[in-house]
Design brief:
Order of helices and strands of chain B: EEEHEEEHHHEHEHEEHHEEEEEEEEHEE
Chains: A mainly alpha (324), B alpha+beta (357), C mainly alpha (319)
Structural class of chain B: alpha+beta
Helix content of chain B: 25-40%
CATH architecture of the largest domain in chain B: 3-Layer(aba) Sandwich
Distance between the termini of chain C: 87 Å
Largest interface: A-C, 95 and 105 residues
Order of helices and strands of chain C: HHHHHHHHHHHH
Oligomer: heterotrimer
Strand order of the largest sheet of chain B: 6-7-8-3-9-10
CATH superfamily of the largest domain in chain B: P-loop containing nucleotide triphosphate hydrolases
CATH architecture of the largest domain in chain C: Orthogonal Bundle
Distance between the termini of chain B: 29 Å
Number of domains of chain B: 2
CATH class of the largest domain in chain C: Mainly Alpha
Largest sheet of chain C: none
Number of helices of chain C: 12
Strand content of chain B: 35-45%
Number of strands of chain C: 0
CATH class of the largest domain in chain B: Alpha Beta
Structural class of chain C: mainly alpha
Number of strands of chain B: 20
Radius of gyration of chain C: 26 Å
Shape of chain C: globular
CATH topology of the largest domain in chain B: Rossmann fold
Strand content of chain C: under 5%
Shape of chain B: elongated
Chain lengths: 324, 357, 319
């Protein structure tokens, strides 16, 4: 067959393929996927019946409290609480009378970013090890359960458990001074300190990073990685070009979780920080106890605003990555 | 051993737990050849392909390309690329970036790799879809992106793992022609894995039939269809009737086999008294209402005449065992009238084929 | 000087990440394995230390080295008649009852929402995000907001009249996304054709739900409930400001740890709650294993089938 004939055959085949493919255009495929559901047909009334209990519960115990925070922050303070629908923004003024709130807010944001980054640095390799280095599925599930189990322990207990580890006479100092002997004096920075709070926060929240990354990596198509290797990519390039971009949604979800939860932290900071370390959460609690409920609400509102901005930035960041 | 082309020598692959996936594979594939690995699932064909690509290493044996030993060479460094079973396109990259990926990995600068990638995309007729993401393409289009992605790196050979598996039948037929034409145009070795006999017969220069982890037979499509070496190939290629029996004597260059269904005569030689089996292709079987001859003929009941467009496949019953024949399409009315009746199936001794035991 | 130490620590923490990025998987694997083991120590070490310290004798202290190992003194202390221990025991029983109620409510809410999400409906997106929002709302804020609501409603003005509803409310909201996701995954694997067949055969939708749907998904519902139980049992921050005079076990622990003088019974109490949690996980795993067995068996049969295909193909087909 001459090469001319070949071209001819190719063109002909292509034209025919084009017509055959009109039938399976992406739009048709997409429409079919959206319509595919797991449930039988039903009337709108039945749908309403199914969503009602959950919706009412969420409105009452999630949405209403959050709306209430916003409202109380702009209501007048009274000696025991607040005066509903008497609007004033004094509460915000009271927050910024001294520099304490602003400084604490700055420290809290800084701590949240730091813990988030460290959680990525620690959580990603753990998820990667579980998802890609452990081959046998049964073993993988078992290890994942072992990793995840601490999540089910009351986190107040997990915080209490750090008591004998940190501290002047804690395990770490005991280890450093008595056994290794690299320091002569116990390190004071290990208790009632920013360092101690950071360590415990990582331990408490790192699972929120490991889990979504693990699921993303475990469902990642192995063939994509082989294809990249096949096309000449080095391990580092394969990671950068294929594995990491494809796991990015998991990293993003993890970052959002950790950032938001650390921003709103109260218990760890209170119990490990021992009053010397503050977060917006502990300040809000202090105002609540005063009681200055509108100021507590104002602090909480600012906290939510910062979280929202943080999440928006994270989402924006991921969009940019996708374009590049 | 040839020092051009791809050579597999004494290749074994034994998985942990003593599962033998590939055993004693010896193959020479010339440059520019279209070779199809054919076999049922689990026969070792995909493992062989992965060993060639470097995604798996043989437990023993060697793989050489143009005389150069490939054992231990990473897939990235082999002059071979794979079109994966479900295409394995990068879902986060556009068609253009998918195709340009291989060149990017080679360090080709951006302008140059885009020019080359665009040329490859044009070759497969997808210029319009260059900026789309893979999920926005149909199955056939994704298939062609996968092809363009490997073509652009100018490999010495392209491996295709069930490349038509995800497509509907109509599209499969078109893509067969397209792939074959593309391969001839480029002159690159294509090694194609499939479990579909029809696909293998229609596309290959040579077919490698694999079964039970070994190479059962290698040959041109025509040779395999006419001369299956053993019963595995005969039954897997389809449209063969197989008889077992005992050799009772010879007649010239023919050997006579006593079977449960009468004597059959077939070209070849075998020791008298040994067990033997033979195959007869459906297309070589003649159907009539005459009485059965002493040899090379059986009485069968015609159950069903299946109209195939260009021929009619007859499903018959030989004492409870299926027996098939193929007759030209213009005899459909005639054979249809015979459904449910007993007929005689005969064949010429030279059309029969002695199988290896 | 300290900053240098911090940078050194950061560099060490970054080693496994760098190994993962720059090395091929077979070379990075040992490094990642070591890191994984260190991670396990990091996660379990404190709890283990606490466990060891809870087994000290009467003179036991709050820090290492442990004294008079091994004795169950601090466990028997949990049964003493001192006022602290009496309230601890009350806390435990209250928490268990509350968790049971929350478990039932979580199961019901997850089931109904799971059923709702089997077909697309208007506003499903908003509802979905509302459910997930609960995962991302810091506990203290939820507690704070609800306490405002209670104050506004005038309930919180007299102590002791708050009742259990707010606690159950926030705890169920916290458990809901987990239970919901369990139900979603159940319905993802679920074959609706059985229901369609039941409808075809003349069953009403209520009957179909009772006779076909529920028996097929009850383990999922049970799983959702178990999530509810465990999460409620361990919940602290959300309950913190709305509990009124009701002291749950985690609240009791907070009160004890916030006080100045700590004795090792804090550790034995911690160990007891850990054991309860792990018992619940084990229960959950057993239940999902029992559920999963049916599907798994089908899959394994499939595998066996494909493994044997070559043998079947090779078997004489023409005789």
């Amino acid at each position: 067959m001459s090469s001319n004939d070949n071209h001819h055959a190719m063109d002909e085949a292509r034209a025919e393929v084009a017509s055959a493919e009109a039938l399976e255009s992406p739009e048709v495929v997409k429409a079919a996927t959206v319509a595919a559901t797991t449930g039988p047909r039903r009337s709108p009334l039945v749908t309403l019946a199914w969503i009602t209990p959950g919706t009412i519960w969420l409105l009452l115990f999630l949405i209403a409290p959050l709306v209430m925070i916003l409202l109380v922050s702009v209501w007048n303070r009274t000696p025991t609480g607040f005066d509903a629908f008497a609007f004033s923004v004094d509460s915000y003024g009271r927050l910024f009378q001294t520099s304490v709130f602003a400084t604490t807010l700055r420290d809290t944001i800084f701590r949240a970013i730091l813990v988030t980054l460290l959680c990525v640095l620690i959580g990603y390799p753990i998820a990667y090890y579980l998802a890609r280095c452990v081959k046998a599925v049964k073993f993988q599930i078992a290890l994942f359960i072992v990793v995840l189990a601490p999540f089910w322990v009351a986190y107040i207990v997990r915080i209490v458990a750090w008591n004998p580890v940190l501290g002047r006479q804690g395990v770490i100092n005991y280890f450093l001074v008595e056994i290794v002997g690299i320091v002569d004096e116990p390190i004071d920075a290990l208790y009632f300190s920013s360092l101690a709070v950071t360590i415990v926060l990582i331990q408490v929240y790192v699972l929120f990073m490991v889990t979504p990354i693990f699921f993303q990596l475990a469902t990642l198509d192995n063939a994509s990685i082989e294809a990249a290797r096949d096309l000449g990519a080095t391990p580092a390039k394969t990671f950068r070009e294929v594995v990491f971009p494809l796991s990015l949604p998991g990293v993003l979800i993890g970052c959002i979780f950790v950032f938001v939860l650390v921003m709103g932290e109260f218990t760890t900071v209170r119990l490990i920080g021992g009053g010397t370390i503050q977060s917006v959460g502990t300040l809000v609690y202090d105002y609540y106890k005063l009681p200055d409920l509108p100021a507590a609400a104002a602090g909480a509102t600012i906290l939510v605003a910062v979280m929202t901005v943080g999440v928006a930035v994270l989402l924006r960041f991921s969009k940019i990555r996708e374009v590049v | 051993m040839s020092d051009t082309g791809l050579v597999l020598k004494d290749v074994y692959r034994i998985f942990p737990g003593d599962v033998t996936a590939v055993s004693d594979v010896n193959l020479e594939i010339a440059n520019g050849e279209y070779v199809v690995f054919l076999g049922p699932s689990g026969c070792g064909k995909t493992t062989t392909l992965r060993i060639i690509a470097g995604h798996d290493e043989p437990s023993s044996g060697t793989v050489t390309i143009d005389g150069e030993l490939m054992n231990g060479v990473s897939p990235a460094k082999r002059p071979i690329t794979t079109v994966f079973q479900h295409y394995a396109l990068f879902p986060h990259k556009s068609v253009l970036n998918n195709v340009a990926f291989g060149l990017k990995m080679q360090g080709v600068d951006k302008a140059e790799r885009e020019t080359q990638a665009k040329a490859a995309i044009e070759l497969v007729g997808l210029t319009k879809f260059m900026d789309r993401k893979p999920r926005e393409l149909s199955g056939g289009q994704q298939q062609r992106v996968a092809l363009a992605r490997v073509l652009v790196t100018r490999p010495k050979a392209i491996l295709l793992d069930e490349p038509l598996g995800g497509l509907d039948r109509l599209l499969q037929m078109k893509m067969r022609v397209e792939l074959r034409a593309l391969q001839r145009e480029l002159g690159i070795t294509f090694i194609h894995v499939t479990h579909n006999q029809e696909e293998a017969l229609s596309m290959a220069d040579r077919i490698v039939v694999m079964g039970d982890a070994i190479v059962q037979q290698v040959g041109t499509p025509e040779h395999l269809a006419r001369h299956p070496r053993n019963e595995f190939v005969a039954s897997f290629m389809g449209d063969n009737n197989v008889f077992h029996g005992t050799v009772s004597g010879s007649n010239g260059g023919n050997v006579i086999i006593d079977t449960d269904y009468g004597k059959v005569e077939v070209e070849g030689s075998a020791a008298s008294g040994s067990t033997a089996s033979m195959a007869i292709r459906a297309a070589a079987v003649k159907i009539s209402t005459d009485a059965a001859p002493a040899t090379n003929g059986v009485r069968v009941r015609l159950d069903f005449a299946e109209y195939l467009g260009d021929s009619v496949k007859l499903h018959m019953d030989l004492d409870g065992k299926p027996f098939i024949a193929k007759v030209p399409e213009d005899r459909y009315a005639e054979v249809r009238a015979l459904e449910g009746k007993d007929v005689t199936a005969t064949w010429a001794a030279e059309d029969g084929h002695l199988l290896e035991q | 000087m300290t900053i240098i130490w911090y940078l050194v620590a950061l560099a060490i923490i970054a080693i496994p990440f760098a190994a993962m990025v720059f090395l091929p998987i077979n070379k990075s694997k040992p490094i990642l394995l070591v890191f994984f083991l260190l991670f396990i120590v990091f996660m379990y070490g404190p709890m283990l230390t606490m466990g060891v310290l809870s087994l000290q004798g009467t003179t036991g202290s709050m820090t290492l080295p442990a004294k008079e190992l091994f004795s169950f003194h601090w466990y028997s202390e949990l049964q003493s008649t001192s006022s602290v221990m009496v309230s601890v025991r009350q806390g435990i029983s209250k928490s268990l009852w509350l968790s049971l109620i929350v478990a039932v409510i979580t199961a019901i809410l997850s089931l109904t929402l799971g059923m709702a999400f089997r077909r697309a409906f208007r506003g499903s997106g908003i509802l979905f995000y509302a459910i997930l929002l609960s995962l991302m709302t810091p506990g203290l804020l939820l507690s704070l907001g609800l306490s405002f609501l209670l104050y506004y409603a005038g309930i919180a003005k007299g102590e002791g009249t708050v009742g259990y509803l707010p606690i159950i409310g926030v705890q169920a909201v916290w458990a809901l996304p987990f239970g919901f996701l369990v139900m979603m995954s159940v319905f993802n694997r679920y074959d609706a054709r059985a229901e369609e067949a039941a409808r075809d055969l003349g069953a009403s939708s209520v009957r179909t739900f009772r006779e076909v749907t529920l028996p097929l998904i009850w383990t999922g519902v049970f799983g959702a409930g178990l999530f509810g139980f465990t999460l409620a049992l361990n919940e602290f921050e959300r309950t913190f400001l709305v509990s009124g005079s009701i002291i749950t076990l985690p609240l009791q622990l907070y009160i004890i740890t916030s006080s100045s003088v700590l004795r090792p019974y804090v550790y034995s109490l911690g160990v007891v709650t850990i054991l309860i949690s792990f018992l619940l996980i084990a229960l959950f795993l057993v239940v999902s294993a029992v559920t999963g067995r049916k599907t798994t068996r089908a899959i394994e049969d499939d595998d066996g089938g494909s493994m044997n295909t070559s043998a079947m193909q090779a078997a004489p087909s023409g005789d």
